Amino acid sequence: MPAMTLRLRLVIPLACVLIVYGGFHTYLTVKSQREEISSEATLGAVRLARTIRRSTRHAMLHSRGEDVHKMIEDVGRQEGIEHVRILNKQGVIMYSSDPGEINRVVDRKAEGCYQCHDAEEPLTQLETSELARIFPNDDGHRTLAAIEVIYNEASCWNAACHAHPRSQNLLGVVDVGVSLEKADARVRETTWDAIVFGVVSTTVICGLVGLFIHRSVSRPVQRLLECTRRVAKGDLTCKIEVSGDDEIGHLARSFTTMTEDLRRARRELRDWASKLEAEVENKTRDLKLAQAQIMRSEKLSSIGLLAAGVAHELNSPLMGILTFAQLLAKRVPDDSLEKEDLQVIISQTERCATIIRQLLDFSRESTPEKKSQDVHLVLEQAIALVEHQALFHNIEIQRTFDPDVPPIFVDASQMQQVFLNLLVNAGEAMPDGGRLAIQTRVLSPDVPVPSEVGEAACEGIQIILSDTGTGIPPENIDKIFDPFFTSKDVGQGTGLGLAVSYGIIEQHGGTINVQSKPDEGTTFTISLPAVSPNGDAA
C-alpha cells in the first residue's frame, strides 16, 4: 500500500474539521431558526386568541351569539388558520369555525385541555409558554394551537343575561389552531441550502488548500528530500533554491548552510593534523607561563615577608641617623655647605623612614583604637596639614559638610592618614591648579545608594572627595589599590598609600570606591558605619 503523501495528510484532517464545523454550524443555525419560527408562531397564535376573546366579549355580554359565530367564521377562513373555537368550562364547543363541531364535548386529555386538566385540580393560571402546544394533524403536518382563558369578570356575573355565579372563576377558553406547514417548509429549505453551501465551500477550500500545499510545501520538501539523499551519498554540492521567506525557505537555506559547513569541516579535517600540533605547542606554552606566574607570586610573597623584616631592622638605625643629622645641622652655620649636605641627609633619611613605616603598616595588621569621632573635625585637621603647602596654592578646596552627619566610630589617626593620602594624591593630580570638592552626607537604608558607590552594609555616612585633575586611565582603575602599584615617576611614590588606606577602611567596616575619567577628574567615595546610641558602630 503506497504511503500517504504530505498533501493528503494535511488536506484530509482539514476537510474533516470543516465538515464537522459546517455540520455543527448548520445544526445550530437550523435549530435557532426553528426555535425562532416556533416562538414567532406561538406569539402570533396567542395574540390572535387574545384578540378573538376581546372582540367577542361585548357580543357575549349582550347575548349576540350570531355576531360571535360570524367573527369566528371570518377568522377561520383566513389562510393558515385551521380552526377557531370557544369552549365552555365543561369542554363543550360553543362556537367554532367548523359548524360540525358545535355542541361536541372535547376530551379533557385532548391537545387543547391537557395543560389545565393534567393535574387532579384544574389549573386556573397558565404561563405564556403553556398557552400554546404543537401536535401533528391528520394531514401529517404540524399544527400550533393556542388557548386564551375566559375568566369570570365582574361584568359577567353582574350581567342580566348570564347565570354565572360569582364563585365560578373560569367560563371557558378560546382555542385557535395555526398550520406550521409553510414554516416547516422554510426550515427544510434553509437546512438544504446550508448543507449545499457547506459541501461546496468545503470542497473549494480543500481544493485551494491542496493546491497551495502542493506549491508551497510538497514541491520544496521533495527537492529537500532529493538533496538529503545526495548528501547521504557524500555529494555536498547540492543546493536548494527556494525564494520564499517562510519556514520552508528558512529550512532550505539552513540546509544549504549546513552543506557548506560540512564542506568547510571536511577541509578543516584534512588540515587538522598540522593544526593539532600547533595547538599542543600553544597550550604547553600557556602552561609554562602559568607556572612561571605562580612561581613569581610565591617569590613576591617571600620578598614581602623578607622586606617587612628588613624594614623592621632598618627602622632603628635610620632613626639614629636622622637624630644625629638633625643635631649636627643645629651646630653648623646656616650658610655653610655642611648645612646643605646635612639637610640632604635629613630629607633622604625621612623619605627612607616614611617608606619603611608604610611598608610595616602594609605588612602587619595593627588593631585600630576606635573612638567616637566627629568626621568633620578629622577632615579639617587633615586639610590643615596640606592646604598651606605649595602643592595646594592654586587649588580651591570646597567643603560641603552635612550638619546631620552623626559621629563615627574610628581611629582618628588612621582616618587622618587615609584623608591625607587622598588629599595629596588629588593635589598631585592637579599640578596646574583646580578644584577639590569634599562632601559628607548621611547614608541610610531609606536613601538609595548610587551604583558607583557599591552596596552599603549598614546605616552610616559617606565622605566624597572629587578633584578636577588628570584622572586615572581605565586600565589602571582595578590596580590602584594593589601594593607597590604607582603611576608616578621613580622616586616620587612607593605605591603603598592607597593600599594602606584600603586596609584601614576595611578594618573600620567600611568601603572605598573610585570613579575616574581621563582629563576630567577622579572621585573617591568612602562609606563608614555611624555610631549607635550605646557608642558602638551602627
Question: What is the CA-CA span between the terminal residues?
Answer: 86 Å
Number of strands: 12
CATH class of the largest domain: Alpha Beta
Major beta sheet summary: 5 strands, antiparallel
User: What is the correct CATH architecture of the largest domain?
Assistant: 2-Layer Sandwich
Question: What radius of gyration results from the CA coordinates?
Answer: 55 Å
Q: What is the topology, as strand order, of the major beta sheet? A: 2-1-5-4-3
Contiguous helical run count: 11
- What class, by secondary structure content? alpha+beta
What is the fourth-level CATH superfamily of the largest domain? Answer: PAS domain
Order of helices and strands: HHEEHEEHEHHHHEHEEHEEHEE
Q: Fraction of residues in helices?
A: 40-55%
| CATH topology term of the largest domain | Beta-Lactamase
Shape: elongated
What is the residue-averaged pLDDT?
A: 77
- Give the uncertain stretches in residue-range form: 447-458
How many domains comprise the coordinates? 3
What fraction of the residues are assigned to beta strands by DSSP? 15-25%
Topology:
Elements: H1 6-61, H2 65-76, E1 81-88, E2 93-96, H3 114-117, E3 132-136, E4 142-151, H4 154-157, E5 170-179, H5 181-232, H6 247-270, H7 272-331, H8 337-363, E6 371-373, H9 375-386, E7 395-400, E8 408-410, H10 412-428, E9 434-443, E10 460-467, H11 497-507, E11 511-517, E12 521-529
Parallel strand pairs: 7-9
Antiparallel strand pairs: 1-2, 1-5, 3-4, 4-5, 6-8, 9-10, 10-12, 11-12
Helix pairs in contact: 1-2, 1-5, 5-6, 7-8, 9-10, 10-11
